[in-house]
Every structure is written in structure tokens, then in C-alpha cells.
Amino acid sequence: MNPFDMPQETDIAWCPGCGNFPLLLILKNALRELGKDPKEVVIASGIGQAAKMPQYVDAHMFNGLHGRSIPAAMGIKLANRNLTVIAESGDGDIYGEGGNHLLHTARRNPDITVLVHNNMVYGLTKGQASPTSEEGMKNPIQPDGVIVEPFNPIAVALAVDVPFIARANVGDPAQAKEIIKAAISFKGFALVDLFVPCVVFNKQNTYQWYKDHTCPVPERHDPSNKAAAFELALETEKLPLGIIYRNDARELYEDRLGITDAPLHEREVSEVAFQELLAGYR
Amino acid sequence: MNPFDMPQETDIAWCPGCGNFPLLLILKNALRELGKDPKEVVIASGIGQAAKMPQYVDAHMFNGLHGRSIPAAMGIKLANRNLTVIAESGDGDIYGEGGNHLLHTARRNPDITVLVHNNMVYGLTKGQASPTSEEGMKNPIQPDGVIVEPFNPIAVALAVDVPFIARANVGDPAQAKEIIKAAISFKGFALVDLFVPCVVFNKQNTYQWYKDHTCPVPERHDPSNKAAAFELALETEKLPLGIIYRNDARELYEDRLGITDAPLHEREVSEVAFQELLAGYR
Amino acid sequence: MSQYSKDVSIAVGGSAGQGIQTVEAALVKILKDAGYGVFACKEYMSRVRGGSNSVEVRVSSTSAPRRAYVRRIDFLFAMDAASLEHLRWRIGEGTIVFGERAQVGDPGPVRFVDTPILRFANEAGGNPIYSNTVALGTILGLLGTPFSGAEDYLRSVFARKGEDIVGKNVEAARKGYEFGKHAAFVEDISIPLTPSEEKKDDIILDGTTALGIGAVAGGCDFISSYPMSPATGVLAFLAKEAKRFGIVVDQAEDEISAINAGIGASYAGARALVTTSGGGFDLMQEGVSLSGMIETPIVIHIGQRPGPATGLPTRTEQGDLNLALHAGHGEFARAIFAPGTLSEAVGTMQQAFETADRYQIPVFVLSDQYFLDSVTAVDLDELPRIPVKRHIARTTEDYLRYALTKDGLSPRGIPGHGDGLVCVDSDEHDESGHITESFAMRRSMMEKRTSRLTALRKDAIMPHAFDNLEGAETAVISWGSTCGTLVETLSRLGSAKLGGLHFSQVYPINPEVKKLLVGKEVIVIESNHSGQFADLLGRELGVKVSRRILKSTGEPFSVEELIEELRSEA
Amino acid sequence: MSQYSKDVSIAVGGSAGQGIQTVEAALVKILKDAGYGVFACKEYMSRVRGGSNSVEVRVSSTSAPRRAYVRRIDFLFAMDAASLEHLRWRIGEGTIVFGERAQVGDPGPVRFVDTPILRFANEAGGNPIYSNTVALGTILGLLGTPFSGAEDYLRSVFARKGEDIVGKNVEAARKGYEFGKHAAFVEDISIPLTPSEEKKDDIILDGTTALGIGAVAGGCDFISSYPMSPATGVLAFLAKEAKRFGIVVDQAEDEISAINAGIGASYAGARALVTTSGGGFDLMQEGVSLSGMIETPIVIHIGQRPGPATGLPTRTEQGDLNLALHAGHGEFARAIFAPGTLSEAVGTMQQAFETADRYQIPVFVLSDQYFLDSVTAVDLDELPRIPVKRHIARTTEDYLRYALTKDGLSPRGIPGHGDGLVCVDSDEHDESGHITESFAMRRSMMEKRTSRLTALRKDAIMPHAFDNLEGAETAVISWGSTCGTLVETLSRLGSAKLGGLHFSQVYPINPEVKKLLVGKEVIVIESNHSGQFADLLGRELGVKVSRRILKSTGEPFSVEELIEELRSEA
Ligand SMILES: Cc1ncc(C[n+]2csc(CCOP(=O)(O)OP(=O)(O)O)c2C)c(N)n1
Ligand SMILES: Cc1ncc(C[n+]2csc(CCOP(=O)(O)OP(=O)(O)O)c2C)c(N)n1
Ligand code: SF4
Ligand code: SF4
Ligand SMILES: [Mg+2]
Ligand SMILES: [Mg+2]
Questions:
Q1: Of D254, B151, D250, which is closest to residue A103 (Cα–Cα)?
Q2: Which of A32, C301, C329, D551 could form a disulfide bond with C275, CB atoms 3.0-4.6 angstroms apart?
Q3: Count of CB atoms situated within 10 Å of the CB of B206
Q4: Peptide bond into A197 cis (omega under 30)
Q5: Residue A229, Cα to own-chain centre: how many angstroms?
Q6: Is the pLDDT of residue D1 over 80?
Q7: What DSSP designation does D71 have?
Q8: Dihedral, CA atoms, C237, C238, C243, C248, nearest 10 degrees?
Q9: Confidence at residue C152, expressed as pLDDT on a 0 to 100 scale
């Protein structure tokens, strides 16, 4: 029994064989192994197949708008920093619609974990190209195949100095779990790009494809070396899996904002301070 | 006389000493030296001090919404590829509000030039921090100084594979002009980050500061080497000026879309094709 | 009188991925070609596999075609137990349920025909995927249409898959067909509908395709959009036709980009379209305001679905009229269309481009999931065509984009077409399109941008009156997708007291409409919670609406439901 | 009667960067402390340097304070030629223009007092920047208030700049003061206003500060916003106070982020605010819809300015009422406030948080540039205070976020506070907050989200009646920022036929309001083009508005203008 299992049987809306199933298990195991209590965990998601994840995890859920899981997660964290806050959604949601939030929340560095289910396609809306779709992939909006370059999330994350950047493949659940654990444990903004096959709409990036096109981050790689990490990010033959970049030295946004352990809803408006404020306008 | 000078005297809304004045001259000179006819040039801008630029250039103007100059410019280019299309705005506009469009338009690679007046501050709205403001800069919203990391436009542009990336300083008008000319001449999506001091609201990043904190791109730098360009982008002591990255091999979005030289407004709906279309539903 | 004398209502229920929509498509085509009137609609969950979805196909004569959803099911084909449960509330006295006991389990207290769908599929093709074809055959057998129609259809559809696949499909269909014929005999089913002999020149469309064809006919040059149900289909349609017509199709990174690219393209002379649903449209509103300010046309299709927020993504609602009406900050002119039939869809989409260009404004076309997914045959002779006039002026050297004129409309120049410069500005601007802070100019420009509303109002499409509105005591009003349901309802109620009025343009409203309503009670039918069009009628015409019949569960109105609601008024 | 018997209207015109606003601030403070009633407002161009801006300061008695913009200028201080041109249309018979001929050039046919502003500045401080202080001194001299007030003020303001600067400023002021006294004598100016002796416990606020203080008092814990004129001030105010009160202030990358962060924070228990203007608000609308769907409170301040699009960024308008009313796709409950006085601003901002939390909805506070920049003294004894009740429930293990209740309101739990889990979903959801496709549940949840409107309506703040509305034939209605102007207009018209009614809550409208209007003609004053509140009165109460007095040039109504408009009705 995992405390994050739903208390009752749930009709899961994913297709049989969908990569989201293994990831659900991986996430729940990671949370359990970290010793988390469901009551301290909030999963904020957007909209998409990936974004349904929190529907199936027994924890707090904020299932918001397509593309907006990151600002919502940040708001939650700032209001109560005792919570473990995960933002979780698909590649279309976080890299496409919500791309601007990724860029700028990284600059702030709140202690939240961003899990992106990267299936290189828009699953829920039935097979349009996502930002990470490979060139040439046929889809309803580009019948002759994708004619734009894919988005490189690792490179972009490096460029905006995300202090924890990793990539994992649900085809290797053990590694994926450890990476997710490391990301959640990391104090700061952590991004994990997860390869999660869509078996219905992406017939080219299959479990096998991900197996064939990935390799572990080279052992000699120093994750604190950003330039080296960028070179890894540019690899196209075999996409490196593991922790690509890590910088433990960045200060948290919460700390820089002077946020204490007391959640905001416990804050009281000091009458003395208020009278002082008014006095300033006498 | 420059054909891009306004036919009548114009009340320019910038402050005396503003870096936008030298840039206005630089841009008009660049356009003249490229032999452009005002009737073939469209400047699309957003909102901000920078975005007022096309108000003072005698060419076609699309002064649209804050943050949205890039999609507008792309739309214009796709509708009539014979036009020379420039998207021009401030750092807040293009890197902040409009960050997502920079990311994803780069992936498409339309033949437009993006000129960002980077004054490291929100000028028009009176001195709030922009994405490129330095940490610690005092401003009305962070009275104790900026507490987030600055946005690195060069690094981000590299991460999304912008095929022409350059940086210039209006303090060196000759170089700035040449770079702008190169960017406009470049066949593809070109980004120029321009250092343009705001003399009113940014008292730390002055003409002198830019002079002291910049250096030319090292001569040995190979602009076709993306990893090397990324290392240059990470420099913080002296910010390199010049062409940082250049890749002439990327195909244009216009070409990949099959757009011809005939502007879209000349397109006619072929009745034969229309009848064929209908026949398909018989 | 036979229960089938006017029409037969067939429902097929199954899970997503089972392909029940292929049964729908086949039935519609085969029956239309056989000389019947056909209508189909569907309802489905927001999932790619599993769940319970259904299609409804109504078969009628071509002289009295049905064009609306009915609750009643005559033949219910349940492909699994869950879909039988899902549709059970619609099972009535006349319903016969067809399904395979092994799949469906105990069907409960219903008239049930154990139909060896899976067995036949395996026998004919060695694969459960032939189940749909078996069901198709069975239905055609029940209806007693010639098998040749099915055979021809299957041959043409599967031709490129090879003779083996064709053969298996035909065989599967035939097994079903024979079973159906036999079942009709056993169950004493006889369908008195007589197919028409006359060969009509018609095509089969759904709402999405009709709007897409309208866009092509309307000279749409450019579309940039971001996928969102139920509006993605229009984007996909134009993508499919892009090459044939030279249309530029761009998948945007978000809705903000989409509308700004559209307005950019329109500034440069293209007829531009965006398609989205309520949530995505929210993000486009600043763009709508820009279009209003710079007087640059843009056509916006909103495929409505139940909100707020994500709501029910695959269901239907007419909840975004107020949104379109007030979208974008500030005040400026606009027009809103809402087709109710597929031929209106083809027409209003063309009209939308014409109106947008003529009046240099943002124009909306509102549809909804029910409408977009509804299928009927459309007579080619009646297909509306509006010539593409570009309303673009070649500029002279002294060109002023916002030259002040009597009617507020300045000749619209575009860059690169003539000797002038075309300057547009989201700031308040002068005649040349440059920024101004003059209050006098502001006043003139506000007047300019809003005064065209008078002409727009006079030009507004008159609503379509039916069922003898003139003589009726009460006008029952529909807009957009509820049209078909109201038409059938009133014709079935057959009351002289009730007349119908359908609006395919909902804003502005032609002032002449007031005359149509003088002295009548007014009832408005809307698929939303508050009666947004009823409010609008009050605001625009001062018409008092005496009753609002509203529904916002995510399902369309059924004819039965409307009949029940209106019986007391009849 | 002296032209100054009720009040003196002083205008100072100069270019941006010349610091005329420091003159305004000084005048208001010194005159208030001296026992006068004061009001100030400003108008300025969208530029940081140059152009022509002006401030208006009205001095009155404290017993009959003025709180509105008048066109009339008694003393016009022109710091340069351009500002004299800029304000020339407001020069009337009684206007005396002060300025230095060397700066202003030929002032034209006006009553002109050549005032050596620059010369004195150079003499006193060796620097033109002392010009403002000279002007300040001159005004005080004209008014004949004791110089000690100016001296005290300058000492305290410049204290941290050192004795030298203080001394130069005092000297500059003194030179102006002496000149002003002399000019008053020469020009035969005598001001009959007597300052009040009574020391009131009051503070000086502008609209921005009043809203900021209201937010602090209302328990605002969190604000995330993106700068946009004229709404940025509220963000800057809270930023300044963040440390003192432990408020979290986040500058967002865009407005979409701002509202989603706000709703996230609110979900986790914070009272959250966003501040923006129309264009930025457009981008927040999907977030508004989310707030409605997940029943998570959020307070939204819209500082209105003239649209569409960028419009006139530093000017004023009330054009976004319809926008707020219909913002966000789908249907759900909301409330909209629009304070008309600074003390109402303090109060309604608190009420906004209380209403948002109590009803778990998005709540709007509408202001505009004119209001945000208007300054008056506010009596501390009358400062409205509403206790901060959080309306948050500790959850139990079986907690259901959307438990169905009679009034549609479920106890609001937040994560980490109790034993339950708090699940919210932008999809249609069941009581536990998980996604559902049940139509029955949809119906219940739509009912739940909208039925609270009944209670909201009953709780709605009643409008403020004045000028003997009860006995009047005609009710003249204001909402938001036009309040002060209407109050002064009616009091000056002094007609028993006209009564006033000011709405500080514009939606929903308390049904009791209808009684106040029974049998009366209704006139509505609005700073917009179409009369949006007049439409709303029609929709909400069925009230027929007989006349709309509208203005959308970007300027506020002046009292004179309203008097002219209403004279025929008086
Ligand atoms: C503002 C907005 N635009 C569009 C949509 C429609 N939409 C829902 S999910 C989705 C894409 C899903 O793709 P992704 O995020 O990759 O998730 P996946 O389904 O592939 O897991 C889209 C476009 C929406 N809900 N909201
Ligand atoms: C949607 C929207 N949000 C905010 C604004 C207000 N605004 C106008 S310009 C600007 C920032 C300007 O900064 P930048 O782009 O760096 O240009 P600069 O003035 O510094 O040249 C802002 C926040 C707006 N016009 N529209
Ligand atoms: S469509 Fe793809 S991503 Fe969505 S549930 Fe099915 S397999 Fe998974
Ligand atoms: S505020 Fe700064 S950027 Fe704007 S015009 Fe003045 S100096 Fe230039
Ligand atoms: Mg995806
Ligand atoms: Mg800037």
C-alpha cells in the first residue's frame, strides 16, 4: 500500500499502454520513498493527458489552466512554503502555451519541482505537433510533417539558469524514480523532462525509440559545468538521461522575499503597524 | 537627407540624452545604406519607449501590443514576403511579456529581424525592473533591489537556435549600424540585442557602464560554433559585442510553407479547385 | 401509424477508439445515396480511449428531413455493457437494443436482440475490428435498403487497403445485413419511409467542414491558431486544403500569438482567421481590442463548449455570447454571426470575411460542439456564395490610413501596394496613424470607430422566420445551433399560436426585427445558464422576453425536451 | 461675491520632469495643515520628459470641501510656453496667469503677472530646479497663508538632504512668497476663505494610496502583477509596505502569470490581489474564469484608461465595466466595486476581500486614472474598517472541497490546514474536486456556482443618495470616479428637481435600489462612450434610463461641463 494510492478505484482516462501509467507508479513510489505525507504534497497541473496525473494521486490537487501550472505552483509555494509543491504537465502545456513562465520562474528560483511529461505530441487534443515534436512528424495541422525545429528544453533551461535539470525515461522506471526523488529533494527550481510515450498519437517516438535514442549522462560529466551541460543538451543522436546540470548555490525566491515558515493565511495585520502606516500620511 | 527621415518635424517623446536617439539615427542610416525603399520596409513594434521607434521613421508602421511585435511581424512577412520586416521593442516587451513568442518564432525561422532596445529597465512605465535588470537594482517594485536573476537573451536565443544572434551598443554607432545591416540582410530570423541607455530610470547601466562592461567578440571566435557561442553568452565581466552566432543553413519558414512571391492579397480562390473540394464531399 | 413513419433514430454506443464514428459516416453516406434524408450528431467524453460515447443517425425522407437531436432511440446498438448503461436513460417503449450478450452482459428489462457482432466480425475478418462493419450491415438490413449501397461504399473506402480488406469488410457487412433483414422480420419491423428517386446534387458536411468550406469560399488566406476542442477541426480542415488553395496555415505557440499573427497578416492584406474555444479566446481579447483600434479586420471563430475554465471540453454550450459581445477593453464596433444550419455556416463564414473587410472590424462566428459535429446533406444548388471583394485601396503618396470620412470608414491601404505608407497604431492616433494626445482627435477617432455601427446594424442579416411567425401569438427564438431543434419542435407541435424566428447574426441586430415581434410574447431558447441572447434582445431592441428556456448541462436540447417545454404555450 | 468665496482653483502647468507634482504635493500638505479643504488632480502625457502636463489644486474651507475637477482656473502658473498653450482653453475671465516672460514668451491676451520664477530660483539656489519652490512660495503668498507652513514643510521634506539644500529651498520659497503677497496686493486679490481652527485627525491620500491602504487593512497577503498605467501604483504601494506587513509582492513576467500565481496563493490560503489596466486584464480573463470554476477568491483591481488597445495610457475613462462584467468564458458569480471617494476606496477594497472570501468568487475593484491621481484629506475617524475574517475551514479527513450545500457555498479548506486533502479542478468536477463527465453533477455544480448570486445581490452595498433624492423628480446617477463631480454639480445647481445617487458597488445591484428610483426620470453620468452602467441598470433592475451623459475623450468631466449638461433638467 502506498499512501498516495487513491482510496477508491478510479476510472483512469489514459489509453491502455500510455506512458503515463508507468509514470504514475514511479511518482507515487518516489513520493513514498521520500517519506512524504500526502497532506504536505500539492500537485499543480495544467491541462492535457499529462496534466491529469494529480487526479490519480491521493494528495492535494490544483488542476488549473493549460500552460499555467508553474505560476500557480509558485503562488502556492509562496503562500505556504511548508508544502512540497510539484508542477506537472505535458510538453505542449509547459514548453508551448506556458513557455514564458518557465523562462521567468527559473529566474526567481522558488523551491518547486517541474515534471514535464514529454511525449513529443499533443495527446489530449489528438495528435497535433507539440514543441518537442520531431521535424517531419505527420500531424493534422502539418499534413506533410512538422516544418519547425523542435524545442530543446534542456538547452533553454540552461540558458535561464534552472539550477536542477534532469531528463529521465519512463522506460527505465528505477532511474526515473531516483531522478524525480532528487528533483523533489532539491532546494530550488527543478526541471525534469520525462520521456513518456503516447502510444496512440505518436507512432514514431515509442518506448523502443526512446530506448534506442537515449543513453546515460556520461560518467565523466560534471553537472556543475554549465557549458559542458549545454554541449550535452545539443546531442541529438543519443539523448542523455540523468542529472544534466545542478547548482546548489542559488538562493531561494522564498528566502529573498523574506518569507517565513508561517503560512500566509496565519498572517495578521498588525494594528500598530497599520497606525504607523496611516501616520505617514498625516 | 535620408529617405527614412520623417517628412515633417516630429515631437519625439523620448527624454533628452536617451539612448533611443542615437539608435534612431543608426537604424535610419543602416536602412539607407542597405538601399532600402521606405515603401518596402515595415517596422512592427510593441509598447514601450523602444517601441515608439517606428513613429519616427518614415516607413510602414505596425505599432501593436506590448509584447506582441514578433507574431505581428511574422504575420506580415507571411502575408507578403517581399516586405522587409523588422520587429522592434524593448527588453521588457520582447523578453518579458513576449518571451514565449521569441522562443517559438525562432523555431519557425521566418525572415524577420528582431531589434531589442535593451536598457535593462522598464522605461515607459517608469523604472520597474525588466528581465535584464541586474540583481540588486533598486526599483519601485523591489525597493531593496532586484531579487531575481537577469535573463540572458543571448543564451536563450542560442538554446532555441536563433540562426543570427548579435549584440551591439549604441555607444559605438558604427559597429551597431554594421550589425543591424548584417541582421537585416540575413536570410532568416535575426536577433540583435542592443544596449541603449535609459538615462532617467537606469542610473547604473549608463553609456559609461556599457563602455566599461563590453568588449568585441574575440577575433578567434567562430560564430558557427554554438557551444563556443554559449560560453561567450555566459560571460559576465565584459559582455561581448558583435555577431555571436550565425548559421546560414536553416531553411526559411516561408519556404517550408510554400509561400510564393505573390502577396496573399493577390491570391484568388480557384473555382476549379473549389468545385473539386466540394466534389470530395459528394 | 408506424413509429418509423417520419424517421428512424439509430444510436450506436461504444468506447473511444472503437470506431463508432465510422459507422456514422458510412450510414450517412450510404443512406443519403440511397435517397433518404439523413442527420447525425455525436456526444463523447474527453478521452482518447475507453469511456462511453455515442452517435445518433436519423433517417427520414428527403422531403421532410430531420435536422436535430432526438432523445428517442429506435435501434440502439451497444458495442459494450458500459455504453448500454450510458444510454439507458434514452431507452423508451419503442427502443430495440441490439448487442452481443457476451459483450453487453445482461441487458436488463429491454427489448433485446442478441446480435452476434463480434462473432460475425471474427468469422468474416478474423478480427474484432470488423465489428463496426457488422453493425453497419445489420442496420442497413433492418432498414431494408439494398445491400449494393453498402458494398459500393466499402469498396471505395477500403480500396487503397487492398482486395483482401475490401472482401472481409463486405463479408462482415453482408453477415450483419442478413442478420438485420432476418431480425426485421422476426421483430416485425417495417420502415415505411420511401427513398426519393430524384438524384440531388448534394454533399455531406458536418459543421466543422461547412465552416471550413465557407472560409475557403470567403477567401481566407491565412490562419494561425492553437488547438482547442471543439474548434481545432476548422484549423485542421484548412491545413488539409492549404496546398490546394495556397492558404497559409500556422500552428501558433499560444492563442496570443495566433491573433497577433492574424492581425499582422491582415494588416498586410490577407484575409485572416483564428479558431479557438472560450478559454483560448480569453487570451485573444487584447488582440480583439487591437483589431478594433487599428481598424484591421480579423475573423474569429469560437467553437463554444461548457465553461467556466476547462469545463467539459467535449460537450456543448452557447455560453460565450456575452464574452464575444464585450471582448477586449475599450469600445469599438464588431459583428457576431451564429449559423444554425450547415448551409448558413457556409454562408455566414463568407459573410464574416466580407463584413470584417468592409467595416474594418473584428467579426465573430460562434458555433458549438453540437453544431460542429452535426452532419447533414447540403444541396449544392443552395450553397451560398458571396464574391470575395477585398476592399483594399492602392495607396497614393499622401495616403492617410485613418482619413476622417463621413461614415467613419477610410480606404484601407496595405504596405507594398501603392505609393503611400501605411501606419497603424494601437495608441490613439491621428489620421496618418501616428500617436496623438489631442483630445479633439481622440473624440473624432472614437466617433470614427463606433459610428459604423449604424451601417452595420442596417446591414445586419434579418433572422429567418418560420412556422408562420406572422400569425402567431408567441415568437419562439433560436440562435446558432438550436435552430434545427426549434424548427422540428414547432413543426411537430403544429400550433398556430407559436411561430419561430432564428438568428444567424446575433449582433448587431437589424432594427427591422422589432416589427416582427410587435405584440407578441417572446420566448428564447438558449444552451446557456442565464439567457444571454434574451438579455441582448432587451438591450438592442428593448424587446421584453417573457420566458427563457435554458440548458447548460453540456448536452444539446432534444426535440422532445423542447416539445415538453413548449407544449403549454401551444 | 468674490470669485474666490467658495474655493480657489490653482493650476500649474509644465513639462514632464519639471516636477510640477512636487508643487501639488507641497500645496496640499501645507494648505491642509493650515486648516483649508484641499483637492488636487492631475493630467499628464505618456512621456517621461517634455510634453505638457498640469496639476490642479483647489483650496476651499474644510466645512464645504471641493472634491472634483473644475475647468475654471483662478491662478494659472505656466512653467513654459507650451504649457500655457496647453491650458489656454481653460483660461477664463477670472484667470490670472503667472509666469516668467522669458520662459513663456508673449502670453497673449490674458491677465498676466510676470513672475521671476527662474530668476528667483537662480538667486536663491543657483539652479533652475528651485523654480518649483519659487512657484509654491508665490502661490502661498497669493493665498496669504502664513509662511511658517511652507518653511516647516520644506524643512521636513529636505531634512535628509542637508542644511544647505533646506536653506536654499526656504529662500526660494520666501522670494516667491513675498512676490505673491505683493502681487495679491497689486492685482487686488483677496481670498475670503477662512481656515478652520479645529485640528482634524486626517491624512492626505490619493486614490492609489487609498486603495493600497484598503488592501493592507483588508488583509491582502499576496500580490503578483505586471506594471501597467495607471494601476502600477497599487503594486508599488504594497511593495513599499511589504516588509512592514509581511506581504508577499511578486513582479510577474506577464499578466497571465500574475493572476495564476494569485489564484495559486489564494488556493493555499492567502488573500491575493492583482492590479492591472484593461489591456493587461484582457490577458487575465482565463484566470478569472478559473477562479469562478474552482471557487477560489481573487481580487482584481482594474485601473481604467481609455482604450481600445494602448489608447491613451495616461488618461482616464470608465470603459471597462462591461469587460469586468463578462470577463472570462462561461457563467459564474462575481462582484464589482467602484469607489467614488477616497474613503470609499479604503472601504471597498476591504469589502472586496471580504466578499471574495465569503463567496469564493472573483471580485473586481474598478478605478481610473482620474480617481487614482486625485488627492484629498480623509478623516481618520471616518476611515472604514472591516474585520479580516478568513472564511477558511480546518479540513477533516473526509473533506470535500465542493460539498453540495443549500446556499452553494462549501466550507473552504486549504492545503496543509487540517486532515483532509484539498482538490480543485478547472474541469467540471464532483464534490471531491475530481474530474467528472456526469451531466447531473454538471447541473448541480452550475447551480452551486451561480446560485450565490442571490445572496450577493441581497448583500450588495446600497448606493449613496444625496441632494435630497427622495423628493427629486430626476435621479442623476454616478458610479466610481464621477461621484465628486456630480456631488458638487448638484449642490451648485441647487435644484429640488434633481437628486443624486452614487454607486460604489456596481454589480450585482441590490434589488432595493429599484424603490429609490420608482417614478423618477433617470440620468446616468459615465466616462465612457456607450453608457455601460445605464445598460446594466436596465438589465439588472429593468430601470429605463432616460438620458446618458457620456464622455470618452480621455479627460474627466469637469463640474462646469456637468452643470451645463444638467441645467436644462434643473
Ligand atoms: C488556453 C487553452 N488552449 C488550448 C487548450 C486545449 N488543449 C488542452 S490539452 C492541450 C495540449 C496537450 O498537450 P500536452 O500538454 O503535450 O499534454 P499531453 O496531452 O500530450 O499529455 C491543448 C492544446 C486549452 N485547454 N486551453
Ligand atoms: C499587456 C500590457 N501590459 C503592460 C503594459 C504596460 N507597459 C507598457 S510599456 C511597458 C514596459 C516597457 O519596458 P520595455 O519594453 O523594456 O521598453 P522601454 O520603455 O524600456 O523602452 C509596460 C509594462 C501594456 N502596455 N500592455
Ligand atoms: S492519447 Fe497518448 S498521451 Fe493521451 S492517454 Fe492516450 S496514449 Fe496517453
Ligand atoms: S525614460 Fe529612459 S528609455 Fe524612456 S525616453 Fe527617457 S531615457 Fe529613454
Ligand atoms: Mg504532450
Ligand atoms: Mg526597457
A1: B151
A2: C301
A3: 15
A4: no
A5: 19
A6: no
A7: S
A8: -160
A9: 96
- Residue of C325, C449, C528 lying closest to D331 (CB–CB): C528
The minimal CB distance from A263 to the residues D216, D269, D424 is found for D269
Spatial separation of the C-alpha atoms in residues A130 and A257, rounded to whole Å: 35
Over the stretch B190-225, which tens digit does the pLDDT of each residue have?
Answer: 999 999 999 999 999 999 999 999 999 999 999 999
**pLDDT in the model for residue B1:** 83
| Cβ proximity of C142 and C184 under 8 Å | yes
Question: Whole-number mean pLDDT of chain A?
Answer: 98
CB contact under 8 A, B66 and D47: no
Listed residue (C270, C260, C391, C395) closest to B39, CA to CA:
C395
pLDDT at C198: 86
Using alpha carbons only, give the angle C161, C164, C165 rounded to the nearest 5 degrees: 50
Position D2 scores a pLDDT of 83
pTM of full prediction above 0.90 = yes
- Length of chain B (residues): 282
Q: Please state the rounded mean pLDDT for residues A177-203.
A: 98
For ligand 3, whether the C-beta of A14 sits within 6 Å is yes
Give the residue-averaged pLDDT of A84-101.
98
**Grid cell in block for residue C273:** 482567421
Nearest CA to ligand 1 atom 2: C280
Contact C305, C368 (CB under 8 A): yes
Grid coordinates of C260: 497577433
The residues facing D521 across adjacent strands are D474
Residue D130 reports pLDDT greater than 90: yes
- Helix or strand run (H / E) with residue D262: helix D255-267
Strands (E), D409-473: 413-418, 423-425, 464-466
Query: Could you tell me the mean pLDDT of each successive run of 10 residues in chain C, 570 residues long?
Result: 90 94 97 96 96 97 94 97 96 96 94 97 95 97 96 96 96 98 95 88 97 98 98 98 98 98 98 98 98 98 98 98 98 98 98 98 98 97 96 98 97 98 98 97 98 98 97 98 98 97 98 97 98 97 96 98 96
Residue B195's pLDDT is 98
Residue C2: what pLDDT? Answer: 83
| C-alpha to C-alpha distance for B69 and C10, rounded to whole angstroms | 52
Ligand 4 atom closest to Cα of residue B119: 3
B97 Cβ neighbours under 8 A, 6+ residues apart: B46, B66, B67, B68, D226, D253, D254
Residue C171's closest CA among C221, C122, C225, C105?
C122
Q: What is the pLDDT of residues B218-264, one digit of tens each?
A: 999 999 999 999 999 999 999 999 999 999 999 999 999 999 999 99
C-alpha cell at D151: 518653511
Q: Ligand 4 pocket test: which of B88, B124, B170, B201 has the largest number of ligand atoms within 8 Å of its C-beta?
A: B201
3-state secondary structure of B204: coil
Inform me whether the C-beta atom of residue C245 falls under 8 Å from chain A C-beta atoms: no
CA D130/CA C201 separation, integer angstroms: 87
Please name the member of C216, C256, C416 whose beta carbon is closest to the beta carbon of B269. Answer: C216
A167 in contact with chain C, both atoms CB, cutoff 8 A: no
ipTM: 0.98
Interface residue B264 vs chain A (CB under 8 A): no
Query: What mean pLDDT, rounded, does chain D reach?
Result: 97
What does chain A look like in DSSP terms, one character per residue? --TTS-SS-----SPTT-THHHHHHHHHHHHHHTT--GGGEEEEE-SSSGGGGGGGSSSEEEE--TT-HHHHHHHHHHH-TTSEEEEEEEHIIIIIITHHHHHHHHHH--S-EEEEEE-SS-TTTTSPPPTTPPTT---SSSTT---SPPP-HHHHHHHTT-SEEEEEETTSHHHHHHHHHHHHHSSS-EEEEEE---TTT-SSS-HHHHHHTEEEPPTT--TT-HHHHHHHHH--SSEEEEEEEE-TTPPPHHHHTT--SS-GGG----HHHHHHHHHTT-
